[in-house]
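Pasting as-is:
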Amino acid sequence: MILSDFAGSWAGTNGFRLMPDHPLAELPATMTVTMAAGGHLTSVAYSWQHPDDGPQDGLLVIGAAGEDGSLMAVWGDSWHQKPVPMSLPGGSGTGGTFEFEGDYGGGWHWRIAFDPADTTTLRMRMDNVIPADQATPEMPAGPYPVMVMDVRRA
């Protein structure tokens, strides 16, 4: 199952920004990856700090969506996605990544990607995807990173 080689506790940093022209504020972060339901589900619990609003946490539960290799994640976060969790269909991305993406209204999308290329580190990246009809010169259409979490085994 996805991320099974990464089961365990991780610690590192999380870069956060709200708008694409803001710098990423780097603060401490943790992640715990757990296999569940006989190895059919992966739970990714994480904590991070918002530069103004303090400690935050989130959870993704990932599993197969079908026999074709597609995946599904359910995601909630104390700052980004509350109180109703978001369903994010996904699958394999480029370069061995796993990507999940869902529409949260008006054509805006949220994308979460895991990069398991190096078994000593794990990167979780969350992008806000700006729809073409909402783009401006300051906010061009397409994804920009809102959170970039880089963790190593604790």
